[in-house]
Known about the structure:
The protein is mainly α and 139 residues long. The protein is built from four helices and no strands. The radius of gyration is 27 Å and the shape is elongated.
Amino acid sequence: MELTTQQQTTAFLCAFLIGAALSLLYTMISISKELLSFNKIHVFVTDIIFMISVFLINFLYAIAMTEGRLRLYVIIAELSSFILLHFTLSKVIKCTMIIILKKINSIIWQFSGRFGKKISDIIISSSKLFKINKKLKKN
Length: 139
């Protein structure tokens, strides 16, 4: 049985949204690769996991929306939104997120440095107090 025009339009729009979501997912993965400086094995495993998840999403989508049949308009919608977002908005998101996360990281390091210094001061002073208390108990 052929899909109605409404079902085809819905399938096209949903595929467009899936392509956009996959593009954002790939952007987040590439940000994590850049910030965490993965080696070649980690990159390979991450890419395999991404490809398997894309396959599963598309397979389940095809079963749910297009009666399990491969439709050219679905492929065009998903690829066009992925490519469009990947080469436009994803670049902006990636640069912005990397700048923000590096700034947050530097703030955390500064805070932990100050906080670590205070903790070490507290430990040193408490150890001095402990030594004084030990001396007092002996006397």
